[in-house]
Design goal:
The protein has helices at residues 7-48, 55-69, 88-91, 96-105, 124-132, 162-169, 175-185, 192-208, 250-261, 286-295, 321-337; strands at 80-86, 110-116, 139-142, 265-268, 271-274, 298-300, 305-308. The chain has 343 residues and is α/β, with parallel strands linked by helices. 30% of the residues are buried.
Length: 343
């Protein structure tokens, strides 16, 4: 049985439907407009106030920008370029000026750069960037073993690196967090203006010191050195901690390609730990050395790590200035003893 709808009722229903659609489109339009306004506002604020970030983020961003765009080595082809990669241990442990000074004292023309990053083992993107800009090193020093490949794309992992996508879409995503931390920490640093200038100075210093940065944020001990009796429950003074790497890795394929394409001499060199943090490492790690020889275009020099006393540490992880000089000199002597490593 058909039901007839009065013309007036049908017309009214159509008008209501059209009004609802217009209202929905209008709401979506206003939502999009507000999103754009907030995006632009936060973007401009983050650009106008770059030093509200915490110290590690400022150092990380400054070094990454410089390696992507700046002149990290002199153009003189007679200079031996030395580039070292690693995490914050290398950031606070390798002093390029001291390494170059010892090289000069041994009649070697060397320019070095510290590419250690805080809280990261970033290697391939910055290395590729400096190589493609004509800044490829002659000597490449690596301290950390290569990692596993990222997950392959699939139905549950469509984007290979979602962190990169988020950073590109929302470069200011940590602005409110950084602003809150800045306001909380500013009083202990002489106020907002003083703290902002201090953060800016950190960026200038890491560039002036060619990537080296003394980490003081975690140092809470007199004289910037650990007490002699300092230790952690997690320390394993009777256990050797070897470097372990995957036997298969796409990262190694990319590294090998860069090393061969730009004719670099690549070496895996020791990092460092506190005495008591682990047992002394063997003079040479035969297992890791065999893996390096089989899978990479690099060589292994020295032990997996050096052990240094507490007095050379600023905190439980990072060396102080005196310790950084000791570690830098030890690496220099290791390379010097290697056959033509710095020639």
């Amino acid at each position: 049985m058909d039901v007839e709808i009065a013309p007036n009722s049908a017309s009214e229903a159509a008008k209501q439907g059209l009004t609802a659609k217009r209202s929905t489109r209008s709401a979506l339009g206003w939502t999009l407009l507000l999103f754009v306004v907030f995006w632009v506002a936060f973007y401009k604020l983050s650009r106008a106030l770059p030093y509200l970030k915490n110290g590690p983020d400022i150092v990380f961003d400054a070094k990454l920008r410089w390696e992507q765009k700046g002149q990290i080595f002199p153009a003189d082809p007679a200079v031996t370029r030395v580039l070292i990669f690693g995490n914050s241990k290398i950031l606070a442990g390798f002093v390029p000026a001291w390494f170059d000074q010892m090289s000069a004292a041994n009649h070697l023309n060397v320019s070095s750069f510290n590419s250690g990053f805080p809280g990261s083992d970033l290697l391939l993107p910055p290395l590729k960037a400096v190589c493609e800009r004509g800044q490829a090193p002659k000597v490449l020093l690596l301290t950390l073993p290569w990692g596993d490949d990222p997950p392959r794309r699939g139905i549950f992992h469509l984007i290979p690196d979602d962190h990169v996508v988020i950073d590109d879409l929302f470069p200011f995503r940590n602005f409110l967090r950084d602003l809150t931390a800045f306001l909380l920490n500013a009083p202990s640093h002489g106020g907002m203006s003083s703290y902002y200038r201090e953060s800016e100075e950190n960026e200038h210093q890491v560039i002036a010191q060619r990537g080296y940065h003394l980490i003081t944020e975690q140092s809470h001990f007199p004289g910037g050195r650990l007490p002699d009796d300092f230790h952690l429950e997690s320390d394993q003074p009777k256990k050797v901690i070897p470097r372990i790497a995957s036997s298969q890795s796409g990262q190694i394929l990319q590294l090998n390609q860069l090393v061969r394409q730009y004719h670099m001499d690549c070496y895996y060199v020791p990092y460092y730990l506190r005495m008591g943090e682990a047992a002394p490492a063997a003079a040479y790690d035969a297992d890791f050395g065999a893996l390096v020889q089989q899978r990479t275009a690099c060589k292994l020099l020295g032990p997996d790590y050096y052990l240094y006393p507490n007095l050379l540490f600023a905190d439980q992880t990072h060396l102080n200035e005196a310790g950084a000089r000791v570690y830098t000199e030890t690496l220099f002597q290791l390379l010097k003893a290697s056959h033509h490593a710095l020639q």
